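Lab notebook, page 48
Experiment: co-folding of the full assembly
Goal: obtain a model of how the components sit together before planning crosslinking
Operator: M.T.
Materials (sequences as entered):
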Amino acid sequence: MVINAEKSEFNEDQAACGKLCIRRCEFGIEEDQEWLTVCPEEFLTGHYWALFDGHGGPAAAILAANTLHSCLRRQLEAVVEGMMAAQPPMHLSGRCVCSSDPQFVEEKGIRAEDLVIGALENAFQECDDVIGRELEASGQVGGCTALAAVFLQGKLYVANAGDSRAILVRRDEIRLLSSEFTPETERQRIQQLVAFTYPELLAGEFTRLEFPRRLKGDDLGQKVLFRDHHMTGWSYKQVEKSDLKYPLIHGQGRQARLLGTLAVSRGLGDHQLRVLDTNIQLKPFLLSIPQVTVLDVDQLALQDDDVVVMATDGLWDVLSNEQVALLVRSFLTGNQEDDPHRFSELAKMLVHNTQGKDSGATGEGQVSYDDVSVFVIPLHSQAQEGSGH
Amino acid sequence: MVINAEKSEFNEDQAACGKLCIRRCEFGIEEDQEWLTVCPEEFLTGHYWALFDGHGGPAAAILAANTLHSCLRRQLEAVVEGMMAAQPPMHLSGRCVCSSDPQFVEEKGIRAEDLVIGALENAFQECDDVIGRELEASGQVGGCTALAAVFLQGKLYVANAGDSRAILVRRDEIRLLSSEFTPETERQRIQQLVAFTYPELLAGEFTRLEFPRRLKGDDLGQKVLFRDHHMTGWSYKQVEKSDLKYPLIHGQGRQARLLGTLAVSRGLGDHQLRVLDTNIQLKPFLLSIPQVTVLDVDQLALQDDDVVVMATDGLWDVLSNEQVALLVRSFLTGNQEDDPHRFSELAKMLVHNTQGKDSGATGEGQVSYDDVSVFVIPLHSQAQEGSGH
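Observation: model returned without errors.
Model output:
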């Protein structure tokens, strides 16, 4: 369920899902990249869901929704032989150049799932390159967050770059499957980049240091709370004139902005984005690499109503994990198990809950003016389908 | 208990402990830096323990043992007024420049303990600068790891830079109070530095990529397992000639070395250290900043025999956390509570256990040829002494 709210003319949220058909193929062969085509030489089947929350227009989110699965399939096909072995071989060909190669791989603790994680990391980066080229060629701009889930060989992989979120909701448990990447959560990484790699980049416009609020003339000469890139704690420093500049990261919580411009620190696109009225580029501070978590569904002692809820910040800004879990549990308890549409209905109900409707369950009725997208994934049916070959 | 083993002529392990007397003092005033002097204007008392494991000679470890507590005291004295408030004020003077300043501090979640964490982070950096200057002035070389614990206002702060370790041992619990910083645990940080900040630094001598083993001619053209700075997972790449260079991080576990030289990625000193027979400096890859963990002792429901064990890698290389906990519990059960020396005896026993003696309890009798240092800190007596003012 994806809705456009009042914030933008076009829906900046985009979603994609489908079957992933991963074929064993000779490396280097030209191949078409049709999505959801029947693959007679099909080798491994997975399922894919992804949400993209655009900013600066819907272009990047639309491109990502049309592209990321192809990048991922290509990356998985490049390593699929390694994924099928009990332990990935040192050489993809299986040829053993050195007799102790299996031992080296063993010592590094490399498992098949590490190849899927690597494929997701590389697919996000490849997709970011594609978006950069496509936007430039078509004279469009914009960026988007990306949250992708892949069910493969009995495991659910969740890859996140941005501020969307996925959680597992069970009868007696809520488990986070992603964490958010914002200017606040990535403060040290961003301050370090400014300190070591791009000291000239801010062109004297910004201060790297974090203060509890933006400083002003009255603070000059006073000792105020601050922290720099090397600190997780706080200290005091005497305020100098350069500390009065605009902060690298400004604002709190949902209002926090990187260089006064962006609310997220990871995502795809934004190759052309500059700070308003300056020549300062945002891209060097943004990571297109996701953090990947792995849920071993086969080890989970699954119950019928175990679901994964994936949603953009439009949902999470107005509903907490606990509120969502309450809504999920009460909906699934009250809706018959034999209704094939109950999970889609649940997704709709969650979205409606952000619009001040159906707010009985939470009793709060907070309203989201941001676009909202929700996937509800029943794990039981995934596990039953298994990793078809 | 600190012993010199067979590895080096001089003991490269050094230890320091004592009372920390933190005086309220006007910022900017010249002050003497005597250690353990009587302070009539004493304001806040803490306790301090630290271990330093030197390499390339004992010089840096000796300097650190003589210096770090002074740096820490100075850093704490610079913020002590803020530490004594229920919430640190935006301005150290307590003056309120903006009426909503307390709210800004509240929103950032800044607590008194964040000032202690910041003081530890700054003290390590300051101490590193002092060591750099002192070693250069005296024509000496070397570096050391640093693990420091501070008991202050009912909390134990553990700051670690290197591969020493502190654990809490209770009757029914083992809790890690530090994690190790080695070329392996900090692989991505080091690869990123090479990729973005110092691409020229390795002067064509090293490859940034990680492979399960060093590659050789026979691997050329094959697709082998690898990962780069953006990956926590693995993928395959076709081996080119440049991949045959010496790896940035080489070897496994205890044998892992950064640039073929160092087994740790954080610590103090090493300002002059270069890769053998080259002009490549190690210092840009080393962090002097510790990771700080906080144990809220007042919230712990302390038992008499709860102890913190701090030790250099000489202990942990031959004894696991579980083995140390077993030794601690069986020793304390068998030794009378009224023996004032039993915790020192326990530290001695742990060290002896690394020398193939007293190995009955573990039944393994592995021998450490590295220097070994152990502090055993009974938490009960700390909490009883409290945070005297």
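Interpretation: The radius of gyration of chain B is 23 Å.
Next step: discuss with group before ordering constructs.
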